[in-house]
C-alpha cells in the first residue's frame, strides 16, 4: 500500500499500551499490544513505542512519507499544547516529554497528545455517533468514570485541563462511598465497574465482578438487577448535572460497563428526566458508542485526523 | 457630545424595562426606567422602547450616527441568531421579533438580543471581573437562579440555547422542595431569594424577605444565620457540579441575594471544596460582581461592545 496515507495511534494505558495504524476512514490496519511497565523510566517506554511503531510501518509495507502524524493518548493529565504528560496517577509518571521524545525520531510530522478520555471523545466526533452533534458529552464507564466534552466540534479542556470530571460529581451527599479522589459520594464510587464489584461482594456474589453481575442480571437475578438499577440511577443523577450545565446535543458512553447499557438505560433515563429542565434536555439522546474495544486507538488517531 | 460613540442597552425585564446609553468604558450616560406591562402587545412595548431610546439620544445631544448599536436583554429564552424572544415565561410573550421591530427604526446598525443572564455574563466579561478569565460561570441569585457560561471569551449557549441552568441542578434528592420548573430539589427551590423568604416564613420571621433575614443574620440572629448557612451549602453543591463539569477560571455571582455574599461565602466554599476534584478546582475564585444594580444594562450594551 505504497500511497495510502495513515495515522499512527498510541494508546498508552496504565497497564497496557496499544499501537496501531489507522486509515482516514477509521479502519485499523494493524495493531500491536504490549504491557506498560510502570517501573520503567517513561523515556524507555516511549523508546519501546517508537520501535514497535517502526515495526508496524514496515509490516504493512507503507512508506514513511505516508505517515500523516502520530496521536498519543495518555492515562492522566495532559498538556496538549506542549505535548507533555503532566501526571499519570496510576504509574506516578510526571512531566513526560512525550512529544519531544517522539519528535527525535519523527521530526517532520505533527505529533499530538491528549488525555485518553478526551481522545475517545474526539474519536467519537470524527468516526463515531458524535459526527451528528456540534456538542456532546463523552463518558467512559469502566473501572473508573471519566468524561470528555466536545463544544463546537472541538475538545473543551477547561481552565486547568480538567473539564468533564463526570466521575467526581457528588451523587450521594449523605453517607456517600469514599472515592479514590478523597471526597465522598462521587459517581465513580457508586457506579463504576469497581463500585459494582464492591456491591456484588457485599451481596456475596462470586466472582464479584461487574461482568458477572451483568450476566446474573440478564438471567433475571433480582439482586444483580437491583445493583444495576442503583448504578443507573446514580449515572442518571450525574448526567442531569452535565445536561443542565452544558445542554449538549447528546451523551455518548463507552467503556466496559457500557456493554451492559440496556440494564442501565431505563434507570438512567428515568432519573435524568426527573432532574433536568426543559423538554429539549429531557429528550437528549443517551447513546452507547459503536467504536468498541479499540475506541482508544481510534481516538488517538483522531487527534491527527480532526486537524486535517 | 457630538463625536462620542455610544451603545444603547435595553434591559427588558419581567416587571420593568431599563433603557440607557453606555460608553465604551462601561459608563452609563443616561438611563430611563418604566414598567413592563405584560398585558401590552409585545410590539407595543417595543414601540415604547423605541420612543424612549430616541428621547435619551436627544437628551444627551448626540448624533444618531454616534449610536454604534443596540443590545437587548430579554427575560426568557432568546434566539440570538434571529433576534427573537422565543418565550418569556413570566409575561407569556412568545416569538417576539425584537430585532425586526427595532430595525424598522434603526436599520443600519447592529442589533443583538440575548437572554438576560447570558447578557450579564458577557457584561462581566467585557467590563467586570470576568476580564481576567477566558472561561467563567456567571450566576444570578435573585428571586430565581440563573447561570451564563463564558467559554473562550464567548457566551456558550448549548445545543438548544439552554446551557447554564444552574438554578435547576438538583441539590436535594430526598424530599426536595418543589420547584417552579416542576422538578423537586432544584437549587432555585432551596437557595433563591424566594426560597430564603419561604424558610423565613416557616420560622415566623416577619417580614419574610431575603433582605430582612440578611439583616437579622448580620445582627447575629441564629435562625437567620442558619437559613443563610443552608442556602450557602446548597449553592456550594451546585457550584461543585458546574466546576467539575466546566473547570471554569472563576465563578462570579450577582443578583439581589449576592449582596449578602459574606453570609453565604464560607458555607459555599466549604461544601464546594468537599465536592470538587483537584486543587485547581478547589481554589477557583468565587467572586461577587462589582457591576451592581445596572449590571443588566451594561450586559445589554456589551452585546455590541463584545463584537466591536
From TrEMBL, chains A, B:
PROSITE patterns: ROK (PS01125)
SUPFAM superfamilies given in the database record: Actin-like ATPase domain
Any one Pfam family match given in the protein's UniProt record, by short name: ROK
InterPro entries the record matches: ATPase_NBD (IPR043129), ROK (IPR000600), ROK_cs (IPR049874)
Top-level taxon in the UniProt lineage: Bacteria
Membership in a protein family: Belongs to the ROK (NagC/XylR) family.
Protein name, UniProt field: ROK family protein
Organism from which the protein derives: Lederbergia citri
Amino acid at each position: 500500500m505504497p500511497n495510502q496515507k495513515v495515522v499512527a495511534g498510541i494508546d498508552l494505558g496504565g497497564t497496557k499500551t496499544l499501537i496501531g495504524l489507522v486509515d482516514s476512514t477509521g479502519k485499523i490496519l494493524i495493531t500491536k499490544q504490549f504491557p506498560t511497565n510502570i517501573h520503567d523510566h517513561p523515556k524507555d517506554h516511549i523508546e519501546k513505542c517508537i520501535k514497535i511503531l517502526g515495526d508496524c510501518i514496515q509490516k504493512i509495507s507503507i512508506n514513511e512519507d505516508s505517515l500523516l502524524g502520530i496521536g498519543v493518548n495518555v492515562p492522566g493529565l495532559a498538556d496538549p499544547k506542549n505535548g507533555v504528560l503532566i501526571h499519570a496517577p496510576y504509574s506516578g509518571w510526571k512531566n513526560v516529554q512525550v512529544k519531544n521524545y517522539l519528535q527525535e525520531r519523527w521530526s517532520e510530522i505533527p505529533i499530538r497528545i491528549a488525555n485518553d478520555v478526551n481522545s475517545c471523545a474526539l474519536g467519537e466526533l470524527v468516526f463515531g455517533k458524535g459526527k451528528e452533534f456540534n456538542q456532546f458529552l463523552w463518558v467512559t464507564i469502566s473501572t473508573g468514570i471519566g468524561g470528555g466534552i466536545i463544544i463546537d466540534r472541538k475538545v473543551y479542556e477547561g481552565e486547568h485541563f480538567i473539564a468533564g470530571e463526570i466521575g467526581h460529581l457528588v451523587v450521594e451527599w449523605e453517607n456517600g462511598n469514599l472515592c479514590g479522589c478523597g471526597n465522598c459520594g462521587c459517581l465513580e464510587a457508586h457506579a463504576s465497574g469497581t463500585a459494582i464489584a464492591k456491591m456484588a461482594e457485599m451481596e456475596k456474589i462470586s466472582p464479584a465482578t461487574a461482568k458477572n453481575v451483568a450476566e446474573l442480571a440478564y438471567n433475571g437475578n433480582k439482586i444483580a438487577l437491583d445493583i444495576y438499577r442503583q448504578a443507573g440511577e446514580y449515572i442518571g443523577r450525574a448526567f442531569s448535572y452535565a445536561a443542565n450545565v452544558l445542554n449538549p446535543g447528546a451523551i455518548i458512553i463507552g467503556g466496559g460497563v457500557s456493554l451492559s447499557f440496556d440494564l442501565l438505560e431505563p434507570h438512567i433515563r428515568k432519573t435524568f428526566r426527573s432532574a433536568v429542565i426543559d423538554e429539549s434536555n429531557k429528550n437528549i439522546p443517551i447513546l452507547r458508542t459503536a467504536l468498541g474495544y479499540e475506541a482508544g486507538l481510534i481516538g488517538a488517531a483522531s487527534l491527527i485526523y480532526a486537524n486535517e
